[in-house]
Amino acid sequence: MRHDGESRWSARLGTPVLSCLMVLLLATGWVVSGKLVSDTPPLAVAAGRTAASFLVIGAIAALRPRTWTAIRLTGGRHRAVVLLAFLGFFAYYTGTLLGVDRIGASRVGLVVSLLPCITFVIGIVAFREQAGIRRVLGTVLAVAAALGYALDDGPASTGGGTRLLVSGVCLALAGTFAYALYGYVYRKHMADVPPLAALPAVTGAATVMLGLTAAVWVPLGAVSAAQWAGVALLGALLTAPVFVISHELILRKGPLFTSSVALVVPFLVRLGEWARGAADAPGPASLLFLALCSAGVWMTVVPVRVPATEPTQPPIPTEPERSTP
User: Fold this and answer.
1) DSSP strand E in the chain: where?
2) Are the CB atoms for 101 and 43 separated by under 8 Å?
3) Distances 50 to 42, 56, 66, 95 between C-alpha atoms, Å
4) Phi and psi dihedrals of 217, rounded to 5?
5) Is 277 helix (H, G, I), strand (E, B) or coil?
6) For tag attachment on the chain, is the N or C end more exposed, with fewer CB atoms within 10 Å?
7) Rounded distance, CA 198 to CA 203, Å?
8) Which residues are CB-contacts of 261 (< 8 A; sequence separation ≥ 6)?
9) At 40, phi and psi to the nearest 5?
10) Pairwise CA distance, residues 158 & 111, whole Å
């Protein structure tokens, strides 16, 4: 059961508003992440943005006494917290950011665009979710359009041979699969607490995992103060609110809805890069894929309306026949 305080807060923003906010923040975060990874070790970016998000979310939760009971409840679920931290943060960020470092953001975006398809399959196979024909077709259309857009956009060349290409794709695919599974695990174990109560423990555990990994594998002394400042701003201003909004949408509408809405992000990233002069203007094929992807997302996320049936009139009782003497 959701807490009343958090329910009143989330009820002020409808699902469409939250979805638009998540998409805009995600698109901006991808642009900033790509810029940071170009001159900052990916593991340092992953650890730093998660740590900054943990500090912001933890501070907000600490200032809300109504969430303290739920925070203590979440902290007692040690196994679930560790599993969620590993799937949704350590595995996802490590896989995708290391993939960007090897094969570029375009190819990683192509792999991440498979998230709704992977989420859809996991939901049916592992969690026995029901899926209508329209949702199936919508998911297939959206994923196909996103893949077509990524191919039309022209993936960046790696210059490192087949081995580097395969390793980058495998890393990105592993991170994408981990995040698809994360959505279902989160809804299973944290559906009774608001995101602001669950995320401090999860992001805290993820910060420890990523921080230890970065300390072992990354020469942190080579990262400048300006780079750390950029990573901190990324985590505090973009990643933290995305965490809260996306987890709210997972609880409201499910992982498939959330991942399907996020398919719009690659198109916005392209438009943003075009606006600042870093990419060419999208051509007719890109605009066509944008329209097809939007249509597929709509088919996937809009709930099916069950037609109301007219109430049937109860039979008029008749008087029993009187027997003749």
Assistant:
1) none
2) no
3) 12, 10, 24, 15
4) -105, -10
5) coil
6) C
7) 9
8) 19, 22, 23, 249, 297, 301
9) -130, 135
10) 15
Which carries the bigger pLDDT value, residue 318 or residue 117? 117
- The C-alpha atoms of residue 29 and residue 81 are separated, in whole angstroms, by 25
What are the tens digits of pLDDT across the range 59-84?
999 998 888 899 998 988 999 999 99
Q: How far is the C-alpha of 138 from the C-alpha of 55, rounded, in Å?
A: 38
| Each residue's pLDDT tens digit, 98-116 | 887 787 766 777 678 778 7
State the amino acid at position 185 in one-letter form.
V
What does the alpha-carbon distance between residue 294 and residue 299 come to, in Å, rounded to a whole number?
A: 9
The verdict on pTM exceeding 0.90 is no
Contact 71, 197 (CB under 8 A): yes
Per-residue pLDDT of 163-216, as tens digits, reads: 777 888 889 889 999 999 998 999 889 989 989 899 999 999 999 999 999 999
- At 321 the pLDDT is 45
Compute CA distances 317 → 286, 314, 320, whole Å: 66, 9, 9
Which residue in 228, 156, 190, 201 sits closest to 54, CA to CA? 201
Could you tell me where the beta strands, DSSP code E, fall in 56-123?
none
Query: Which amino acid is present at 60?
Result: I
CA angle 34, 210, 99 (to 5 degrees): 35
Q: Which amino acid is at 134?
A: R
* Residue 222 CA to its chain's centroid (Å): 31
Give, as one character, the DSSP assignment of residue 278. Answer: S
C-beta separation of 97 from 215 below 8 A: no
CA distance 47 to 32: 15
CA–CA dist 243, 224 (Å, integer): 27
What is the CB neighbour count within 10 angstroms for residue 6? 20
Contact 104, 170 (CB under 8 A): no
How is residue 78 written in tokens? 């040690």
